[in-house]
Amino acid sequence: MREDQLKVLEARGIVVPPYAEYLQEGWRTNPALALDAQPTMITTGNIGVPAYLANLLDPKVIRVLTSPVKAAEVCTEVKKGDWTTVTAQFPMVESTGEVVAYGDFNNDGNVGSNYNWVPRQSYHFQTVTQYGDRETEMVGLAQINYVSDLNFSSTLLLSKFLNQTYLYGVMGINNVGLLNDPALPAAVAPTTKSAGGTTWAVAKAVEIFNDIMLLYITLQTQLLGHIDRDTKMTLVLDPIVEPYFGKVTEYTLASVRQAIKENWPSLKIVTVPEYNTAAGHLMQLYVDEIDGDATAWVAFTEKMRAGRTIPELSSFKQKKLGGSFGAIIRRPVAVAQMIGM
After folding, report:
1. 3-state SS, residue 70
2. Tens digit of each residue's pLDDT (9 = 90 or more) over 65-75
3. Mind listing the pLDDT tens digit for each residue in 281-303?
4. Long-range contacts (CB closer than 8 Å, 24 or more residues apart) made by 180-185
């Protein structure tokens, strides 16, 4: 390339060498070297560096998503006992009595209280965190806190199992959940939709609203006036069907969700993945409390109790445990269910 061409390029910010030299210094003027062929290489040709030197390890670790733990949002979560508690008795009292015609010298008539004791058994569960010295340091080469991640996993595992006991209880003992307590009233069927069937996928907005109204009417029938439209209630359903609350009416463009808030201003909506059951989409309507008494509890003895960290020859281990009474539905009559939306 000529010198004038190089100056034009340099003025535009492009700098290139005036020529390419492939000969070692002194070879050009050495007449003993004909250099009509390149000498053979001893080493294998390559790009120059190991591939791992051009690799990036992102310090931000992405955790795999798991289903959300939401059973405790359905009703009040309470602690009952501790890890030494094996059983619990939940008392129920009914007022009794009779009146008779008044008379100055009549001493008849009496009042009383009748008590029942509802038993539940606790279930305690555990997991063990173990890690070796070498594996911890090897994972650390990737700038990952291995021990911290193991502790997170153990906490998540206990929390998810506790959530399952709140929903399903524990088979084989007197421990039931929000979905399978035998004392719950039978589920009502959704209304038949104009498009056919009972599912919300084909339902109009007003038809979905009518299903919610049917649950509320069912509660009113069961409770005989103990609630009204301003009572605090919780509507629990599958997150797959909750988006249908966004459907609007044909004329006013009001959504199902707006109509629900208009009719029951104190109603709370909670979505729980496990309400997508084998029998269909389940929906429950809970009265939060009546006369200051909660309708239902989900109860634990211990959420997480960590044992001692035990050092071995070249490793460590630690046990963690939790305990659950499942769900304590204190007034099943204050719950209405629907399945098949």
Report:
1. coil
2. 999 999 999 99
3. 999 999 999 999 999 999 999 99
4. 181/327, 181/329, 181/332, 183/329, 183/332, 184/329, 184/332, 184/335, 184/337, 185/218, 185/222, 185/332, 185/333, 185/335, 185/336, 185/337
Two tokens at 112? 């009383």
Q: Which residue shows structure tokens 């929906």?
A: 283
Report d(CA 171, CA 184) in Å as an integer. 17
Rounded to whole angstroms, the Cα distance separating 264 from 230 reads 6
Rg over CA atoms, the chain: 36
Low-confidence ranges of the chain (pLDDT < 50): none
Quickly list H helices, 169-230: 205-223
CB–CB of 111/97 below 8 Å? yes
Bridge partners, residue 297, by sequence: 76, 328
Strands 335-339 and 293-294, sheet pairing: unpaired
Architecture field, domain 71-96+111-339: 2-Layer Sandwich (3.30)
